[in-house]
Amino acid sequence: MAYNRAPASRDPPSGIGNSTVISMKQSMQPITTAAANAFDYRVTPYLKSLLQDRPADDPLSLQFLPQPQELTALAYETSDPIGDTPFTPVPGVVHRHPDRILLKVAHSCPVYCRFCFRRDMIGSKGEPLQGAALDAAIAYVRAHPEIWEVILTGGDPFSLSARRLRGILGDLTAIEHVSVLRIHTRVPIVAPHTVDETYVSALEQPLPIYLAVHVNHADEITDAVVAALRRLHAAGIVLLSQTVLLKGVNDNVPVLEALFRRLVRLKVRPYYLHHPDLAPGTSHFRVPIDVGQRLMHSLRRTMSGLCLPTYVLDIPGGFGKVPIGPMYVGARDASGCRQIQDPAGHRHTYPE
Predict the structure, then answer these.
(1) How far apart are CA 252 and CA 260, in angstroms?
(2) Domain limits at 161?
(3) 97-117 as b/e, with b when 16 or more CB fall inside 10 Å?
């Protein structure tokens, strides 16, 4: 691996179908090229135009352009930070929770986010799920009646052709005990023109489909993105969002508030605000958890609950995702009462 491992004592700092995907390694500075070689780098023509003339510290540049900091990984950062591997009974399937599985239908993405928690598992380091391997993964779902929801992930499921995606969704829909399909994708944000009527038609299935769109900053929501989201919504797709809390990108109240309000106006429900995972070379993106908790506390004071995602952390090692938002409920005292903090920070006694 072409990056350095830092000592443990160092603390971390506060479906594109046939669309062309381009690499710009030749135009980068040498150390940035090294970061692009250590972890795959790719942008779409649409994203390249959006990044044009943006400075290096712009919230979009930080997300998509390789940085020298990526070449240093901390000792506790791992290639499998959320513990997929121990819960992989067959290739492409992660069965960590009783009623749902992850199905890694794609091994590549149209862009590679610089904070990606699967950066050591996808792209040039990944393996496609197709042929007999895909059949075995679908057979696993069929053989486990406790599976109520299938979550398509990867890589990016929307990097598959409409035909392949339609086929996979159709196979899953035909399984009697599967009730809900969920898809996690970045494509409507980074290649919105590819989410056309033909592609959206592949999502029209008898089962409800929930689409979690990954978006981190309101500047990512252009007119083209709005049009793509409206096409998806018109097809009956339930739209959610996932956001990663990133230092220098969205780690302040005005930026998060602008993003979440914009999403709700577009009929996209903010779902998760992720604390960044411990992926190699990503420590420069992480803020302390208490910073995230204070942000969520402030947002609750000023925003409708419709706009508030759940702030979550995936516990390293595969122990699951847990809410880590601010606490408002204190322990029960000797009289049986609890101290409850209101959104303004004032405390009140609640008898039980």
Answers:
(1) 13
(2) 4-323
(3) beebbbbbbbbbbbbbbbbbb
Sequence-separated (6 or more) residues with CB below 8 Å from residue 79: 120, 121, 279, 280
Dihedral pair phi/psi, residue 35, rounded to 5°:
-65, -40
pLDDT beyond 60 at 238: yes
Question: The tokens of 208 are what?
Answer: 């409800």
Write the CB contacts of 225 (distance below 8 Å, at least 6 apart in sequence): 188, 189, 192
How many structural domains comprise the chain?
Answer: 1
Angle ∠(151,21,152) on CA atoms, nearest 5: 5
Residue 132 falls within a domain, yes or no?
A: yes
Provide the CATH number for the domain around residue 256: 3.20.20.70
What are the backbone dihedrals phi and psi of residue 322, each rounded to the nearest 5 degrees, phi first? -135, 145
pLDDT tens-digit series, residues 134-163:
999 999 999 999 999 999 999 999 999 999
Supply φ then ψ for residue 182, to 5 degrees.
Answer: -125, 140
* pLDDT at site 32: 63
- How many alpha carbons fall within 13 Å on the CB side of residue 202? 21
CA distance 72 to 75: 10
Please give the backbone phi and psi of residue 63, each rounded to the nearest 5 degrees, phi first.
-75, -30
pLDDT greater at residue 212 or residue 121: 212
Longest dimension (CA), the chain: 70
Q: Is residue 340 part of a domain?
A: no
Type of residue found at 305: G
**Does residue 331 fall inside a structural domain?**
no
Q: Mind listing the pLDDT tens digit for each residue in 123-142?
A: 888 888 999 999 999 999 99
**Average pLDDT taken over every residue of the chain:** 90
Residue 22, pLDDT score: 45
147 backbone φψ class: left, alpha, beta (φ>0; ψ -120 to 50)? beta
